[in-house]
Amino acid sequence: MHIKGRDSSFKLEVLGYEFQNSTDTDDSNWLSVKIDCTDNTDKWSASGGFLRTMELIEIQEWLSSINDADSHPNRLSFTEHEIAFEYLDDGRLAVCLDYDCHPKGVNYNLNDDAEYQMHFTCNDKVLKRLIADIDTALKMYPVRNLSH
Length: 148
Fold this sequence. Notes:
- The structure is a single chain.
- It is built from 3 helices and 8 strands, in the order ββαββαββββα.
- It is of the alpha+beta class.
- The strands form 2 sheets. The chain has a 4-stranded antiparallel beta sheet with strand order 1-2-3-4. A 4-stranded antiparallel beta sheet has the order 5-6-7-8, covered by helices on one side.
- Strand 6 (83-87) and strand 7 form a beta hairpin.
- Helix 2 packs antiparallel against helix 3.
């Protein structure tokens, strides 16, 4: 999933299942992901178990519903709070980064720092491309339904 603006970009890449050999359904669906960000002159990256396969589906469904104001919430967040998305009234998509995904990374201070947002113009063409990117990731890393 990659979105670009004039002076910024956000890329989320699924690296694989975090617990490749797990036989537990919940554990087996955690994903190792990497983000690469540029905002003006700042560049940073982070990687870790920030999302689950089911949350990729949530992203895809949420992006698909953005144009339907009656059915989609403005904000989408996940079990781990490093990454969230928000659709703003002016048609922009906010990528919300916190904790490990925050530009400060390991220097993030729970008492002083807050969520960092990157804003991107989000038209139908961008939405379709983001949805296709998520679909590609889901084909490579589908939800695994294992018995406990």
